[in-house]
Amino acid sequence: MEEKTEYTTYTTTTTTTTTTTHQNSSEMSDSKTEHEVVLNEKIDQMSHHSASAHGNAAAMEKGQETNEEYDEHGNQINFVMSETEIKLVRKLDFMYVMPYIAVLNFLQFFDKSALNYSAVLGIRETASLDLKQFSWLGSIFYLGYLLFQGPSMILIQKMRLRMYIGTVIILWGVVLLLTFLGHNFSQLAALRFLLGFFEGGIYPCCIMLISSLYRRKEQAGRIGVVYICNGIALSFGGLIGYGIGNMDGAGGLRAWQWIMIILGAITILFGIVSFLFMVDNPKSKVLCLSSEEEKIVDARMRDNAVVRSKEIKMSHIYESLKEPRFYIFCLCSMLINFQNSVLNTYSSLITKGFGFTSLNAILLTIPSGVTDCLFIVIAVWYNRRYGNTLYGACAFLFVAIIGILLLVVIPVAKAKLLGLYLTWAYAAGYVLLLVSVANNVAGYTKKIFYSSSIMVFYTFGNFIGPFFMVESQAPLFVGGMVGCMVANAATIVLFIYARWDMARENRKRMANHVEMEVTPDMTDVENRNFIYRL
């Protein structure tokens, strides 16, 4: 139980000067009329005023008071979004940003998981693969993924995100399509390496897009969408895999080859569309912003603390390397993704081991996708409602531990299936890890460095995970699943420590509030009034 304390809030208010004052809510209520008059006269100066913890991030219509408060947990309170801002967010959600991110992540997850479906559709027979070689095909994808993180970090900072994302999508689509030509381990390993290499920069790009286009309190839901699309891909992948499985022999090709051809072609087409039309800037011309919307965008940019810059600031990197939570988040990313790689590569084989046919084993991956989505939706709702990001992550990892216990201990097939589905709760824990990073790391270079480093350790986890699975323990792979359970338990301990550390820093900052100028691209350490969302 967390110790009950009397909450203090930070309130930011626009005034007639270029400085701000720290006022409590009662003072603002008394001076509301005065401030409305001031704002009517000074609306054009709104975007130039600096506020306290996160800048003056109030989205408003003309004449509406600018007012934001944050409690010691970093949660925004007493903030009402204007109708104009609501319409702007809807444009981002349903037209210009989230549809691209959703399709991108659907394809990214489906494409890399094609090996999972291919495992029961003949790829092992075609290429004469033993289980160890098959494990290498699962792992070598992440070796390519890992090696691209350094170049990707530089390219994300230097290139337009739209062009960068579109290019790598096209390249990985070409590689996936060509995979149907692989007929031995060496050829397939080379293609899987290249597939991972070109997919390696996608997740950091998605996090950067969401971090720069949405307010901090809005980011959990949008990051959740990224991973909900993984679950949708898992569910629809089962249906699509089942359908393509019935194409075995068509045109002289095996079913697994048709999966590569069809998915590769779709991915290339989407890459071209993304290169030409994706919105990657809060003030993109595609959005056709009015002058009022531009002022709202300025306020939203101050709230999310992301100011884009092509300059790589080494001070941001050095600052990250001094922070214990940097290493904690990276290590947690690795530990959680032991299980990610195991399930994405072996879930069909595990399910088949319960006594089902190959095609039925593919169909039974559909509930895995449904539970994956359900857990993430619950995680996002919980985070928006209560804000306890890291406590929520711990709860979902505990559910995953229960699932693994059912899978390896209970001898009944239905109980094992239930356990397998519950293990997907780990995905919600990982989503909340990314939400915590997006909310609590300020400074453009620092945010990119954090995101890219976490992806490096994500890669380590996914590379190592398949080697937990020993052929002599097939089809349940008890040793590998127990290893995942231990990793989840260790992650829970690390999350609790990280939350305690940020809560301690929040108490210090709120007890020692300082008046300071908030300049663009400040980090969360440089801005002593920045409040971490726990």
From TrEMBL:
Region (Disordered): 1-32, 50-69
Enzyme type, top EC level: transferase
Record has ATP-binding as a keyword: no
Main location group: membrane
GO terms under cellular component: membrane
Biased composition (Low complexity): 7-21, 50-59
Enzyme nomenclature, EC number: 2.7.11.1
Subcellular location: Membrane
Molecular function per GO: protein serine/threonine kinase activity; transmembrane transporter activity
Domain Major facilitator superfamily (MFS) profile: 97-501
Record's protein name: Palmitoylated plasma membrane-bound casein kinase
Native species: Mucor velutinosus
Taxonomic path: Eukaryota, Fungi, Fungi incertae sedis, Mucoromycota, Mucoromycotina
